[in-house]
Amino acid sequence: MAFFTTSDSKRIYYQDTGSGIAVLCLAGLTRNSQDFSFLAPHVADLRMIAMDYRGRGQSDYDPDFTNYNIIRESQDAIELLDHLGLERAVVLGTSRGGLIAMALATSHPERLSGAILNDVGPVIDPAGIAKIMDYVGNQPVSRTYEDAAKALQHVMGPQFPGVSLDRWRLQAEIQYDQTDYGLTLRYDPALRTALLEQAAAGPVPDMWPFFEALRDIPTGVIRGQNSDILSNETLTEMHDRHPDLMSAQVPDRGHVPFLDEPQSLTLIRKVLDTV
Fold first, then answer.
1. Cα distances (angstroms) measured from residue 227 to each of 21, 157, 166, 232, 261
2. Cβ atoms of 190 and 55 closer than 8 Å
3. What pLDDT sits at residue 215?
4. In a domain, 32, yes or no
5. According to the model, what pLDDT value does residue 204 have?
6. Is 154 among the domain residues?
7. Which among 90, 245, 94, 80 is positioned nearest to 171, based on CA atoms?
8. Which residues are CB-neighbours of 24 under 8 A, at least 6 positions away?
9. From the centroid of its chain, how far is CA 133?
10. How far apart are CA 254 and CA 118, in angstroms?
11. Where are the alpha helices (DSSP H) in 108-231?
12. Residue 103 lies in a domain
C-alpha cells in the first residue's frame, strides 16, 4: 500500500501500477480507487494512478468536513502528481472526478495532457442530484455483500438492464466494508453535511467556464445512455463549446458506466491516441 502526506498533513492512499502514459484516475463522490478495477485489465499498457480522496477509502478522514470540496480535492490531486514527480497526466474522472478535472484545467492546465470525463459535464441534472442526496451519508441497511448486491440490482437495474448479480456483488465490495455488525460506508458520513452546507451557502457556480478551460486539451466524454446526471442536451452543448471534443454513449448504462464497456474503452483509447 502507498500513501503520501498532503500540505495540510492528511495521509492519502493511492495506487500506482504499470508503465506507459500516466493516467490519474479520480473516482466519484462517495467512491474510491477500487472503482477502476473493472477498467484495469484492459489498460495494462498504461501507468494507472488511482487515489482515495480525503475522507474516502483508506485515506484520512478530515475533522474539518468543509475540506470535502472540489478545490481542496483538486489540490490533493496536484500534490499527488508532485509526490510522484509527474509533470503531466491524463485525468480520467468519474462524476466528481470529472468536476475535479475541469477545476484542474482552470487552475493547473499545464499539468493535464488530456481529460476523460465519465458521465459528467458542467450541468448536473437536478433529478440526479436528488437521487444522490437520498443515499449519501446513510449507512447501508444490508448486512452482507450478497444482500447489498441484490439491493443494488433492484435500485440500479432500470438504468443498468442486464447487469449480473455477480457484477453488483463486486460493486458492493468496492463501496462497503464488512464488519461483525454488517456493512458500513467506505467514506466519512460527514460528506453529507459538507454537501448540505455547500448547497445552503448559495447558488452552484457556473461550471461552463471550467469546462471551456479544457478547450485546448484533448478531451473525451463518456455518457451512460440512461444517465440522470449528464443529459443529451448538455452533451450537445459541450460539443458546441469544445469543437474537438470526443464522446461516446454507452447503451444499458446509467450513472456511471463501469468503463469496461466496448464504447468506453474505444473512447479512452481515442483520447490517449490523440495525447
1. 29, 13, 22, 9, 15
2. yes
3. 95
4. yes
5. 80
6. no
7. 94
8. 49, 50, 51, 77, 80, 81, 89, 90, 91, 92
9. 16
10. 11
11. 126-135, 145-156, 165-175, 190-200, 208-212
12. yes
The overall pTM is greater than 0.70 = yes
Please check whether residue 59 is in contact with residue 84, taking contact to mean a CB–CB distance below 8 angstroms: no
Mean pLDDT calculated for residue range 31-45? 96
What's the pLDDT at 16? 97
Total structural domains within the chain: 1
Exposure of 204 by Cβ count < 10 A (0-12 exposed, 13-18 middle, 19+ buried)? exposed
C-alpha cell at 70: 472540489
Average pLDDT of the residues in 171-196: 95
**CATH number of residue 59's parent domain:** 3.40.50.1820
| Nearest 10 degrees: Cα torsion 55, 95, 117, 57 | 30
Of 197, 203, 142, 201, whose CA–CA distance to 173 is shortest?
142
Q: Is 49 within 8 Å of 80 (Cβ atoms)?
A: yes
Query: How far apart are the C-alpha atoms of 142 and 144, rounded to whole Å?
Result: 6
The residue that leads in pLDDT, 92 or 200, is 92
Q: Which of 21, 16, 20, 19 is nearest to 275 (CA)?
A: 21
* Cα–Cα distance, 267 to 270 (Å, whole number): 5
In the numeric block, the cell 485525468 is attached to: 91
Whether 240 is in a domain gets the answer: yes
Amino acid at 252: D
Range of the domain at 247: 2-130+205-274
